[in-house]
Amino acid sequence: MLREDGVMPTGTTLSALLTVSGGDAASACRGFFRQVHAHAVRLGLCSNAFVGSALVRAYQRCGDADAMFGVFEEIDEPDVVCWNVMIDACARSRRAWRAVEMLSRMCRGGGVADRFTLVSILKACSRGHDLGLGMQLHAWAWKIGSESETATCNALITMYLKCGGGVHSAANVFDGISEPNIISWTAMIAGLVQNGLAMEAAGFYKHMVRVGEKENDFCLTSVLSAFSNLASLEHGKMVHCRAVKSGFCFDTILGNAILDMYFKCGSSADAQFVFGAMQAHDVVSWTAMVVGYGRHGEARKAVECFRAMVDGGFKPDSITFLAVLSACSRGGIVDEGLNIFRCMAEDHGIKPDREHCACLVHLLGHAGRLNEAETLIRKMELQLDSFAWESLLSACGIHGEVELGKRSAGKVMELEPWKDGPYVLLSNMCAEQCQWREKETLRGRLDYSNVRKDAALSWFPVSEAN
DNA sequence: ATAGGGTTAG
């Protein structure tokens, strides 16, 4: 409209345009942001601090890091707000340490960091798991007198709980907040769950409800992960009810957490119901369904779900593929699994990593297609990793394939000589095939090398990973 | 006129 009337937009107009069209689907706004950027270039407004910082924020929101750094460098004299916007954008990006680099550039240039800068650097610190830096930042908070300020404390709590600084330090910060808000409570609950303290997190939530703090969708998502970890269907259902009552249940992220909770608490029917009732799905929703069915041994349903997802135009990512492959592997659906593995690179452009390959080796191995499994490992150049070879070795044990078993065991011994597994598995295989002399040789090698078979403890809980 | 804290999938 402005352009049609012959009126020239100013910097104010442009920065307003960039901030108005924000919200959730910022990646869809990329084209629009570029148009505004082009106008700014034409009008010579890129050096303007307001336009520049709005452009940085816009490109950060749609995930275009290159453009983000590009527009920042065009700003003439970045003020503290420009630096803060840029530092925060870095902290949210995949390369969080860039935030710290930016901070030092800012200080070298004579800029003075403030409490907004501090919060962003804390965020970067949490993502980088740097407790040492985090504690220095805590000291800095005291220095500038924001040690009991809510936003600063919230960021400090997250930092302590994500960087392994101990629950006690986080709780201390929480107790020192003059006015804790819902974010403070959520930071504690989420952090406790992440530290394996789901019971404490649940207790914290109860306490929060008792003091009358009003929960929101973010908070309920964290609470759900606590009850999922506790496999407490009853409490999970209660949270689901609260989400429905408060109208939060239309949120996709919360819906994902609810259906995940139902799977983890053993009710795939409820999970399916929630999935059906959700207003919108994303990749996470679909992946959670595939994962859930797979865990419940419903491999067919997992595959159907995967197919429906692709047909519906959703783009599966590497986690989705791992989920569907592992469902096939557990359910013994060999050819379907092979097909999906093939289309992963060919149709979806996702390069299989070691876990995908290990999954497929397991799938082929257990179906007795041992040579195909060996070919796969060699083709994928996974020699540097013994994981796939171990999987093949155990399949050889099941199918009595001594020769291939020896080759696989040899690979494991070569790559990770400290492991006792291959010696034990192989010697048992030789015993079953009555190759007694080989068995004794192997046992002898086990004794001479530094490898010792761990003593078996019949009462010791065996973890799934072994 | 531009800025802050918390969330989901193996």
Automatic annotation (TrEMBL):
InterPro entries (alphabetical): E_motif, PPR_At4g14850-like_plant, PPR_rpt, TPR-like_helical_dom_sf
Keyword Transit peptide: yes
Record GO biological process: RNA modification
GO MF, one annotated term: RNA binding
Highest rank taxon of the organism: Eukaryota
Coiled-coil features, chain-numbered ranges: none
PPR repeat copies, ranges: 79-113, 181-215, 282-316, 317-352
Keywords carried by this UniProt record: Repeat, Transit peptide
Claim: Nuclease is one of the keywords in the record: no
PANTHER family the record matches: PENTATRICOPEPTIDE REPEAT-CONTAINING PROTEIN
Name of this protein: Pentatricopeptide repeat-containing protein
Biological classification of the source: Eukaryota, Viridiplantae, Streptophyta, Embryophyta, Tracheophyta
